[in-house]
Amino acid sequence: MTVPLPGLPDRIRIHEVGARDGLQNEKAVVPTEVKARFIRRLAEAGLTTIEATSFVRPEWVPQLADAERLFPLLGEIADVGDVELPVLVPNERGLDRALALGVRRIAVFGSATETFAARNLNRTVDGSLAMFEPVVARAKADGVGVRGYLSMCFGDPWEGAVPVAQVVRVAKALMDLGCDELSLGDTIGVATPGHVVALLAALDEAGVPTASIGVHFHDTYGQALSNTLAALQRGVTTVDASAGGLGGCPYAKSATGNLATEDLVWMLDGLGVATGVDLGALTATSVWMAEQLGRPSPSRTVRALSHKE
């Protein structure tokens, strides 16, 4: 039954991260052809932004070492509809590799905390911003869209609670570099709705418009959907999610799976918020991918809709 709530957007865009953020955390390396089929099926299910892969050094994330082989296999996805295939790039070398394959949308990946910046990027927070500056400038000069990911926006496993002002400083710096969009990451899943609202309000006050913000919640404590709803009530219209709930973070061991795309779509369908996603087709895709991985999907909606007596 569709029962709308007042104050929600009519439509949101799902930024699907299962093929990149999800698969990078798998112990096994998924074959390139399986990844391509996964992305193709996600597009056929109606997802229009599908993060495809990451152009990082293979030894850092061996699960995504096939980026050069994968991306050329995705050209036919353009025939499905208006589908964007952003990729993650850590530095100028990664940007060079992506541009050589015709990538038109990239993302850089920063941290709101010093410890995670050191562990993930081997740099300070300000040092990572300096590394991103030429990447963003070159991408923008070439007409390539840029997303800025900001990790540890709500809590850090080494530093504890992260002050809102600290997140706002780094978020604003990322946007000042020229990013088109900012994704706020609850990397270890500790956020609660009041914290989400407070951070969005502080960012708005600092001149970072809500229209440019996406939210990226992990479900460690079962809060991802409630946090998403709080963000939507504050005007956010971009939500990151992972088909089947795949993923975590290889650099933060307390980070469990991402918000499952199916769980998100079930909630939004019930609220009358349009996504353009066919829940049945998406669920079938996640069941298929779980079979490839040899384990059941952690998504409650996938399990409920695929359950057979």
From TrEMBL:
Alphabetical list of CDD domains matching this protein: DRE_TIM_HMGL
Domain Pyruvate carboxyltransferase, first and last residues per copy: 12-283
SUPFAM superfamilies according to UniProt: Aldolase
Domain of life: Bacteria
Gene3D superfamilies reported in the protein's UniProt record: Aldolase class I
Gene Ontology molecular functions: lyase activity
UniProt key word Lyase: yes
InterPro entries: Aldolase_TIM, HMGL, PYR_CT
Sorted UniProt keywords: Lyase, Metal-binding
Pfam families for the chain: HMGL-like
PANTHER family, A to Z: HYDROXYMETHYLGLUTARYL-COA LYASE
NCBIfam families noted in UniProt: PRK05692.1
Family the entry assigns: Belongs to the HMG-CoA lyase family.
Protein name: Hydroxymethylglutaryl-CoA lyase
Protein's organism: Streptomyces halstedii
